[in-house]
Design brief:
Layout: H1 2-37, E1 49-51, E2 62-67, E3 72-78, E4 85-91, E5 96-101, E6 104-113, E7 128-131, E8 136-138, E9 145-147
Parallel strand pairs: 2-9
Antiparallel strand pairs: 1-4, 2-5, 3-4, 3-6, 6-7, 6-8
């Protein structure tokens, strides 16, 4: 009988513990879902840069001037052979920035849109991605410029 009583007490303590565990899981799921949905809802300020971990500190000794068109834009420098991402520059519509960049020869990809939906979805279904023709050569002491027109104009 004493064994049955001890087992009964343990079983009654499990109920509140399971309830707290279930509540914790619901709160955790809600937090994860709401955080993911609103993650990075604000487009980064113009001139903000993200770089690959392979880019060594202090490597950005060249300069690039960029003027955004009527849409928000992300200008990406890609390795010419592999197409690997090296650097991204964020620009709000109509803004102009001069940004330090690594010297070299790069492919340029432009991502444009109006309503920012985060780093995974970019501008959602209205995301427009294009590669600029040819390669961009960046040399310290020179300052080439890119002018991003509206995507409708194709410039």
């Amino acid at each position: 009988r004493s064994g049955a009583t001890a087992r009964g007490r343990g079983g009654s303590a499990r109920g509140p513990v399971l309830l707290l565990l279930a509540l914790a899981l619901v709160v955790l799921a809600w937090w994860w879902w709401s955080d993911r949905r609103h993650e990075y809802r604000t487009f980064p300020p113009s001139g903000s840069v993200t770089v690959t971990t392979a880019l060594r500190p202090g490597a950005a000794t060249a300069r690039l001037a960029i003027r955004a068109g009527s849409a928000k834009a992300i200008v990406q420098l890609l390795a010419p052979q592999s197409g690997a991402h090296v650097l991204s520059i964020f620009l709000r519509s109509g803004d102009r920035r001069i940004v330090p960049v690594p010297p070299g020869t790069w492919r340029v990809r432009v991502i444009e849109g109006h309503a920012w939906d985060g780093p995974r979805r970019l501008f959602g279904p209205q995301t427009h991605i294009r590669r600029l023709p040819g390669l961009l050569r960046l040399v310290p002491g020179e300052r080439p410029s890119l002018s991003l027109g509206s995507r409708e104009s194709g410039s």
